[in-house]
Design brief:
The chain is mainly beta and about 1500 residues long. It is built from 19 helices and 77 strands. The radius of gyration is 49 Å and the shape is flat.
Length: about 1500
């Protein structure tokens, strides 16, 4: 079987497809039967003679039945050769020989194995009489066919389909018509089937070979049709229909089929099309393609049902490029003219009638005879999957799922396109565990999409009749009710990762894109456009400094008309700068560029401008809610919500896009502590409009945005809102930076070969796994390491459990979760039963869910949640629901439910459980060491159960169930607690040690027992006197007492003393009568107290140096580091305490007497140094409780020397220097702060200082003027007098005084720093000197100059105070650079400083002067990225000379040549900002202009001599 072109006589080599039998195969058998078949089961033995004239449908038709069974069929490509050319070739090499030509096979077979084709053909021999059956019916079956197509064979098949099939052919006209006139379709109107062709395909595979593969047999894709049917029918009214139905169709990515999955495959998702996992009926239709063509219309329908499509972008692009490769066009020279002729013959031009309005010209409209096209797409339950990492099965993915019905009718101008999207949802998941990890991003929503004809084109409206409908593209209108979008931190990270991977995939799929771009630039049409644009870009750079701004504006305006830069310049020159004449000249003599660019863009912009067929987008929504979710690190809670209500959005897609939107904006944030939403933007109706302005030469592209509102915008900012913003930002930044560090760690392979694990492996390390296996070999280990390193482990979301319960009651408890409404909660608290019984089904509904009871042993923490994690997370956060806990402690009855939504402390009363079968309390002794087994229920009173709800981490709420009696250890040692019952003192209970700074809740059943304490491991007994909390009865009352623990050794009389402070918390005194009887209220007092264990004496060192302390008459002494504190456990505050303090170089101290009952007060302690100079320390005594003292030791002043000079301090007018200063302080500065006080009370409280004698041994340092140390900042000049009439030296020292904060409130920190610090942030080596010493030096450095390298800083002091304090700078790296002008550095400022070389070239430095503390930081930086402060533009025809007014040096006079510009900064920043201008040459006027006054003020005149030369015009 073959199909060839009609040019059999042609000598050109033709190509075609043939089906043949290979040699040696079975002979095809052809069986023909001629039977008289009728529709009933029985067969008639003779033919009917006369048909029934009344009903042709009941006619018994005679059929010709042919069964064709073709075995070992093969398909291959071949070429046709004329017979003359093949004479030289042996006939044996040809496959098929004909008289005039022969056919020779080219290439291999298209099939991997021969197949079997079975056809049954039925012809209606009575079609002239009846059409009860089809004229021709063909039914075939194909099975187990595997066809491979490479690109040349695909192009051949596509060329055959385009050129050989479907071409118009002449119909065969019968000489006479035997048909009954009653069954003519034209006469009767009844349509019958003329031809029906049905093929059943089972296990048919189509494989596409990769044209860019390394190997010729490398595969690209495979399409498997497991069970499909192809039906073709043609009817008598010229209607044709093609229907392809596939019950199971799959597409595979076969590029990496031969690789192992562990080798790091780029794509492990090889099955691109597959059936959805949620398919309810496995045998349903997956894909159906239906095409129906009539004389007037054609319709195409696509049905996708329960499919899952993986969007592997590089594979899709490769398949798209393969399928869209056109056929060979070498034999199609006359195709286009013939098409043009057919199109011109089909269309006709008729005048359009004017329907209404004014009479206009009658326009000619094209009347097209094209068919009406209709395209329908039905998508049901289909999922589109985008994965984050194609090389890993267990990766994160985003799935789009929904049901869609799309209809496209291009000839329907009012609504050419409409679509209905039902249940469209987007969610993220992990493909390895899809059901449990699915999280919704866009909740299921119903969307209506329509293309609506533009309202600006009314039908038949007079003047507009002259336009076609294509001039008014339709508007895309999108309508939806409620759209809920949930964006979380991990979702955004996933979006970014996918967006980052898509360009990598597409670039890998299109490696020749750069070459194609290079080829496109060589296109002559594109080069015409590209060349002027390059010219314009170059011309914009070159005349940047030599053009008049007016000329630039004129050139820009002319270029906006669409002409090149050269033409615009030529026009302005020809028209002498007249803009209007230049525009006229351009339109007459130049060719605009816009036409070329438009035509080129029109030819090539089909993919660049995708919105040419629509004029705008309009979105109408009742509400759009965007919920931001914080699921970073250790939380998963809502963050904020933005709601746009009654949204009407319109965006026009034009040359300058513009749009508008009307909506009501509201915003809420989620208060995590209260588990509720709070508004931060109140509902605000507003309208927003915007317009995009295109860029031009004068300004870049700009967006004009306008917001209009009649109501006030109310924004609520609370402290909780700011705290959550700060904490969220911190956690997000930490996680983001942590990911960057992990990426850097993975990229570096330094860990390979070491004994450590790879930093990129998470919890599931292959190394850890293999270390536990004895059979793991080294080679297997290396293979797994490399495989895991290449196959990146995706980031997994940790499941977040929002609640946890801690059992600190000391007993086993059971709890259940309860979700209720505020109404039910109010009813239960008002007197109705606290727990709704489950037997009463009428009271239970969806909002009242009680979980099963869970057991929690003492000391255990159990995480729990109220609602199971679902796809629509945080859906019920806006509902009025209350999450409560029901708790039952072993030994007591169940308490009423407690709400745990809000952070706080709550309590309930519990009555003893008298009906319990157990006789002892708690769990077995083996499970806990707290519970004593002999505690009976009958002896227990009703108790108060406390529920403490706290926030841990970012959003996790922890509910601690405990008693109301808390012990807090404020000591430095662990404390043991002992409890015993008054009725059984021989069976005490010892609780675990309470660590320093921790709190411990007394077990619930032991709160009424006697309590004793002692330090752990010090060898002492428990304190004799028990701790009685029952004595403290008033709220907020604090009762304190002392306790002593005696030593276990009889010969050691040492005691351990501590203080006990008991405070009653703010618990109400009310006790419910249902639980407490009147007698029980009097007998049993409920605890609600906190017991503090405090040290008796604490000494705290607030000095900057180490101190030694001792207590006179007692063996208590020790050393204390700066900022540390120590507790004196053996000190007895009931006796007098004499405390002494010693410092380095202060060996003498006057002890401080602390009597019993000391309260808060301050006192001075006197210390004396080696030279008997006095230093007063400040002692502050704080009484935290009765018998508990804290002693803070500090100094009045710290003198911190940061000048680098040795400084000596003393009180003003005092006779001696301050204490603690010795000979070494004269030689070098002290690194540690000096402790200072005003020791002499008769002298004023001022301090003075001088320079140490060691820095200038021959000089005589003098004391500076006195200054206060109590606050503020200042500066003092320290003078050093030199001998021999030499000028004295001056050191300027800045003073900064700051008051201490917190526990350092009694100390003032005084910092002495250099007044000036020069910081070189430039790229040059700089030299500095005072202005007076730089005069006349030129390019040389004077004596005493200071230099700095780039990136360093240096302290600066004025060498002479009697000279002007102006600083000069010079670039030491620039040859022949001259010193700059002087500038002030004693005030905050920023400016450019100008330096010149001997040729007059300017060099700039940026100077930034800031006062930090008491020091002026003078920073010098480069000016490469900064504009100059001034620019001198000379647009005149003569050279101009300018200089700063007041400058007398001739080298600072600068010439600016005509039509040039020059950057400039002040040569002398200390002079006024005036510049003097003159024209070069004699006879010019001089003008002085202020550079701070922007105006055209003065004219500059100069002499211009004009000489007239006359010559004779005739000879004598």
């Amino acid at each position: 079987m073959k199909k060839t072109t009609s040019a059999d006589e042609s000598k050109v080599v033709m190509e075609g497809l043939f089906m043949k039998k290979p040699s040696g195969g079975n002979v095809s058998r052809l069986k023909s039967e001629l039977n008289s078949l009728s529709k009933p089961q029985g067969q008639q033995s003779k033919l009917p003679v006369v048909p029934n004239p009344e009903s042709p449908e009941d006619h018994i038709c005679l059929l010709d039945c042919i069964v064709v069974d073709l075995q070992d069929m093969d398909i291959f490509a071949a070429e046709r050769y004329p017979r003359e050319y093949s004479k030289a070739v042996e006939d044996t090499s040809t496959d098929l020989s004909f008289p005039s030509y022969c056919v020779r096979q080219t290439g291999g077979s298209l099939l991997k194995e021969p197949f079997r084709l079975k056809l049954q053909v039925e012809r209606n021999l009575d079609k002239e009489l009846s059409h009860a059956v089809a004229d021709i019916l063909i039914h075939g079956s194909l099975s187990s066919v595997h066809c491979s197509l490479d690109l040349p064979k695909y192009k051949l098949i596509r060329g055959l389909l385009e050129n050989n099939l479907g071409e118009p052919i002449e119909e065969f006209m019968r000489p006479y018509d035997l048909q009954d006139p009653r069954i003519h379709t034209v006469l009767s109107g009844e349509v019958y089937t003329s031809m029906s062709f049905l093929v059943d395909m089972v296990n048919v595979s189509l494989e596409l070979m990769d044209p860019k593969g390394k190997d010729e047999c490398s595969s690209l894709a495979r399409f498997d049709f497991k069970k499909s049917k192809l039906l073709f029918e043609s009817s008598s009214n010229r209607t044709k229909s093609v229907n392809l139905v596939s019950h199971s169709m799959m597409a595979f990515d076969t590029r990496y089929a031969g690789q192992k999955s562990t080798g790091g495959m780029p794509n492990v998702f090889n099955c691109i099309f597959q059936s959805s996992k949620n398919t309810s009926s496995p045998g349903a239709i997956q894909i159906e393609l239906h095409y129906r063509s009539t004389k007037d219309s054609s319709s195409f329908t696509v049905v996708l049902n329960n499919l899952r499509v993986f969007l592997i972008f590089d594979w899709l692009l490769l398949v798209h490029d393969f399928l869209y490769t056109p056929g060979d066009t070498k034999k199609r020279e006359n195709v286009l003219p013939s098409r043009q002729r057919t199109y011109s013959s089909e269309t006709s031009v008729v005048p359009k009638a004017v329907k209404s309005g004014v009479v206009t010209k009658r326009s000619s409209l094209h009347v097209s005879t094209e068919k009406q096209l209709e395209v329908k797409v039905n998508v049901t339950g289909t999922e589109f999957v985008v994965v984050e990492d194609m090389s890993c099965f267990d990766t994160n993915a985003i799935i789009l799922k929904g049901t869609t019905v799309l209809t496209y009718k291009p000839k329907l101008l009012d609504r050419p396109f409409s679509g209905s999207l039902f249940g469209i949802e987007v969610f993220s998941c992990r493909l390895g565990n899809e059901q449990e990890t699915a999280l919704s991003i866009i909740d299921p929503v119903q969307i209506q999409v329509e293309l609506v004809g533009n309202a600006s084109y009314p039908s038949g409206s007079g003047l507009l009749d002259a336009f076609n409908s294509e001039d008014f593209p339709p508007i895309l209108e999108i309508q939806l009710q409620a759209l809920d979008i949930r964006l979380s931190y991990n979702d955004v990270q996933l979006f970014l990762a996918i967006a980052k991977s898509i360009p990598q995939q597409t670039s890998a799929a299109m490696p020749d894109s750069s070459a194609s771009v290079a080829e496109s630039t060589t296109n002559p049409s594109s080069s015409l456009v590209a060349e002027p644009s390059c010219l314009t870009s170059e011309n914009r750079e070159i005349p940047k400094r030599v053009l008049d701004p007016v000329l630039e504006v004129q050139l820009a305006r002319l270029q906006d008309l669409g002409f090149s830069m050269e033409d615009c310049r030529k026009a302005l020159l020809c028209c002498q700068g007249d803009l209007k004449k230049a525009a006229s000249w351009l339109f007459k003599n130049a060719e605009p560029l816009k036409s070329l660019s438009l035509t080129s863009s029109g030819r090539n912009s089909q993919g660049i401008v995708p919105f040419q067929f629509i004029s705008g987008v309009e979105i109408k929504a009742e509400s759009i809610c965007i919920c931001f979710i914080d699921d970073c690190m250790d939380c998963d809670v809502p963050l904020a919500e933005l709601t746009f209500s009654r949204l009407n959005f319109l965006q026009h897609l034009r040359a300058n896009p513009e749009g508008c939107a009307h909506f009501t904006l509201s915003g809420d944030y989620y208060n995590r502590e209260l588990s509720g939403w709070e508004p931060f933007i109140e509902p605000w109706p507003c309208s927003v409009s915007w317009q995009q302005h295109a860029s031009s030469r004068l300004h870049p592209s700009r967006l004009k945005l306008e917001v209009k509102a009649t109501h006030r915008l109310d924004v609520n900012i609370t402290s909780v809102f700011l705290e959550q913003y700060a904490s969220t930002k911190q956690s997000w930044m930490e996680d983001y930076c942590k990911q960057d560090k992990e990426v850097n760690a993975v990229s570096s392979e330094e860990w390979m070969g070491s004994s450590e694990d790879s930093p990129c492996f998470g919890q599931s390390l292959p190394l850890v796994y293999l270390r536990t296996r004895s059979t793991a070999s080294l080679t297997n280990l290396e293979h797994q390491i490399y495989a895991r390193a290449e196959m990146k482990t995706p980031k997994r979301r940790q499941p977040f459990v929002p609640f946890a319960l801690r059992n600190h009651t000391g007993c086993t408890l059971w709890f259940a979760t309860l979700t209720t409404t505020p109404t039910r909660a109010a009813l239960s608290h008002s007197g109705s039963p606290g727990v709704v019984p489950e037997e009463n089904g009428t009271l239970l509904d969806d909002a009242h869910n009680v979980s099963e009871w869970k057991e929690v042993i003492t000391g255990e923490e159990v995480p729990f949640e109220f609602e199971a994690r679902g796809k629509l997370r945080h859906r019920h956060t806006h509902d009025l629901r209350i999450h409560q806990l029901q708790v039952r402690v072993n030994g007591w009855e169940e308490v009423s439910p407690v709400s745990v939504d809000k952070v706080g402390t709550f309590f309930r009363y519990a009555a003893p459980d008298k009906n319990s079968s157990s006789s002892t309390l708690g769990s077995p002794i083996s499970r806990t060491n707290i519970i004593h087994p002999q505690v009976y229920f009958s002896s227990l009173p009703p108790v108060r159960v406390v529920f403490e709800v706290t926030m841990e981490g970012s959003a996790r709420k922890v509910i601690t169930v405990r008693s109301a009696l808390i012990v807090k250890n404020k000591l430095e040692t662990p404390m043991e607690l002992r409890l015993d019952s008054p009725s059984a003192p021989d069976k005490p209970v010892v609780l675990p040690a309470v660590m320093p700074g921790d709190a411990f809740a007394i077990p619930l059943h032991l709160t009424s027992w006697r309590l004793q304490a002692r330090p752990k491991g010090l060898g002492v007994f428990f304190c004799k006197a028990p701790i009685h909390w029952t004595d403290v009865q008033k709220t907020a009352e604090v009762c304190s007492s002392k306790r002593e623990c005696h030593s276990m050794e009889s010969e050691n009389s040492r005691f351990f003393r501590f203080c006990v402070a008991i405070k009653k918390e703010n618990y109400p005194d009310y006790m419910p009568s249902s639980i407490f009887s009147d007698s029980a209220k009097q007998i049993f007092r409920q605890p609600g107290h906190t017991i503090y264990l405090l040290p008796t004496v604490v000494v705290c060192n607030l000095l900057p140096c180490e101190l030694e302390f001792y207590v006179k008459g007692m063996p208590i002494s020790g050393t204390l580091k700066p900022g540390k504190e120590v507790a004196l456990h053996t000190a007895d505050t009931s006796q007098n305490i004499e405390l002494g303090v010693l410092l380095e170089n202060f060996p003498i101290c006057k002890e401080l007497l602390i009597p019993p009952g000391t309260q808060n007060y301050m006192v001075r302690m006197r210390l004396y140094d080696i030279n008997k100079r006095q230093l007063n320390l400040t002692i502050r005594i704080v009484c935290r409780a009765e018998g508990s003292l804290k002693i803070l030791i500090s100094a009045p002043y710290w003198l911190i020397n940061k000048t680098g000079l040795p400084l000596i301090f003393r009180q003003d007018n005092a006779k001696t220097d301050a204490a603690g200063q010795f000979e070494e302080h004269e030689l070098a500065r002290s690194l540690s702060p000096l402790l200072f006080c005003y020791a002499d009370k008769e002298q004023p409280n001022f301090c003075t200082m001088r320079v140490g004698k060691g820095i200038h041994p021959e000089g005589m340092p003098g004391w500076c003027q006195g200054f206060s140390l109590d606050g503020g900042s200042g500066v003092r000049a320290l003078k050093v007098i030199q001998h021999g009439n030499r000028p004295g030296l001056i050191y300027n020292i800045g003073i900064d005084v700051k008051k201490g904060r917190g526990r350092y409130i009694d100390t003032c920190m005084v910092t002495f720093a250099p007044r000036y610090l020069l910081d070189n942030k430039s790229s040059y080596k700089l030299a500095f000197v005072q202005r007076e010493f730089a005069r006349g030096q030129g390019t040389s450095n004077p004596d005493g100059y200071i230099s700095t390298l780039p990136g360093s800083s240096v302290v600066f002091h004025w060498p002479r105070n009697d000279y002007d304090q102006l600083l000069c700078v010079r670039l030491m790296d620039v040859r022949n650079c001259i010193w700059s002008g002087g500038f002030e550095v004693n005030k905050n400022n920023s400016f450019h400083i100008n330096m010149r070389d001997t040729l007059g070239k300017c060099y700039f430095l940026r100077v930034e002067i800031t006062l930090q503390g008491a020091t002026y930081h003078v920073a010098f930086s480069d000016t490469d990225q900064l504009p100059p402060p001034f620019r001198i533009d000379n647009f005149s025809k003569v050279p101009i000379v300018f200089n700063q007014h007041g400058v007398v040096e001739p080298r600072l006079y600068t010439e600016v040549k005509p039509m040039t510009s020059l950057d400039y900064a002040w040569d002398e920043p200390s002079l006024p900002p005036f510049v003097m201008l003159t024209v070069k040459g004699a006879g010019s006027s001089e003008i002085v202009c202020s550079m701070n006054d922007f105006q055209d003020s003065k004219q500059l005149y100069y002499e211009n001599f004009i000489y007239i030369a006359a010559t004779y015009t005739f000879s004598g």
